[in-house]
Write a structure and sequence with these properties.
With 112 residues, the chain is an all-beta fold. The chain has no helices and 10 strands. The strands form 2 sheets. A 6-stranded mixed beta sheet has the order 2-10-9-4-5-6, with no helix packed on it. Strands 1-3-8-7 form a 4-stranded antiparallel beta sheet, with no helix packed on it. The chain is globular, with a radius of gyration of 13 Å. The termini are far apart.
Length: 112
């Protein structure tokens, strides 16, 4: 199983970013997928979940209304669209399978 995240960057408060996660070595289209994040000195935090076919999504209260999870099973790719970013969104973002495999992460820094 391999998961590769990309799209992290330094962005100003109020800005937007879209993260991507490409999976290989497993049947991506059969797996529920999650985004997680970890800020420096803090615990790993669940951000969002999407069902295997994308018909079900869920979000942490801290990102609801600002983040959108989606997937393209034809491309084995998971996305996280983030808008109205705030400094408290600064973290390493990881995609994760339901069974616990996760990638190396991509860094999002929100700062002026």
């Amino acid at each position: 199983v391999q998961l590769v995240e990309s799209g992290g960057d330094l962005v100003q408060p109020g800005g937007s970013l879209t993260l991507s996660c490409t999976g290989s070595g497993f049947t991506f289209s059969s797996n529920e997928m999650r985004w997680m994040r970890q800020a420096p000195g803090k615990r790993l935090e669940w951000v969002s979940t999407i069902s295997s076919r994308g018909q079900y999504t869920a979000y942490a209260d801290s990102v609801k209304g600002r983040f959108t999870i989606s997937r393209d099973n034809a491309k084995n790719t998971l996305y996280l669209q983030m808008k109205s970013l705030q400094p408290e969104d600064t973290a390493q973002y990881y995609c994760r399978t339901a069974s616990g495999f996760r990638g190396q992460g991509t860094q999002v820094t929100v700062s002026s």
